Amino acid sequence: MSRLVPLYEWTVEVSAHFPHLSTPQAVLALWSFGIVFAHRCTLSAVANTLDPILKKRHETVRQRLCEWYKEAPTKTGDHRREFDVSSCFSPLLAWILKDWPNPQLALVLDATTRADCLTVLSLSVVYRGSAIPVA
Fold first, then answer.
1. Which of 41, 47, 74, 128 is deepest in the core (most CB within 10 A)?
2. How far is Cα 123 from Cα 96, in angstroms, rounded to an integer?
3. How many CB atoms are located within 10 Å of the residue 100 CB?
C-alpha cells in the first residue's frame, strides 16, 4: 500500500467535514495528519515527518505548511487569501459531536497570556483527559 493512501483518505475526511475550504486551504488535512504522526505540532517536526511520506524536499514541505497560516500579503503567488479560522469552529464542533458517546458535554474556557501584549481565549471540548479546541 502506498504511504500516500492514508493521507488521501484523511484529506477526503477533512474536506467532507470542512466543505467550505478551498483546495489550498485543505492543507489543514496535511497539517493534522503530520501532527498525529510527529506527535508534535511544531512546523519542523511536522515537515520532517511529512518529507518521506510526500517524497518531497524538506524546504518544499515546510513552505507549503507555512503558506497555510501566513497573512495574505506575505504569501507567495497571486490570488492568495487569508484563512479565517473562525469559519472552522462550527464544522469542527459538529464533527466532534457526530458520534459523541455521552449526552453531557464538558467545555473549558482558557485565557493564555503572552507578556503584556497578547491574550488568547480558547474554548475546548474535554474528552478523555484532553481538551480539543473548537473556538
1. 47
2. 14
3. 11
Q: CB under 8 Å to 65, separation ≥6 — which residues?
A: 27, 30, 31, 34, 43, 46, 47, 50
Rg (CA), the chain: 16
Joined together, the cell numbers standing for residue 38 give: 510527529
The H or E element containing residue 123 is strand 118-127
Model pTM?
0.72
Give the best-scoring range by mean pLDDT among 24-33, 50-59, 92-101: 50-59
Q: Can you say whether residue 12 is alpha, beta or left, with left for phi > 0 and alpha for psi between -120 and 50 degrees?
A: alpha
Q: Which helix (H) or strand (E) holds 57?
A: none
Nearest partner of 75 among 91, 90, 63, judged by Cα: 63
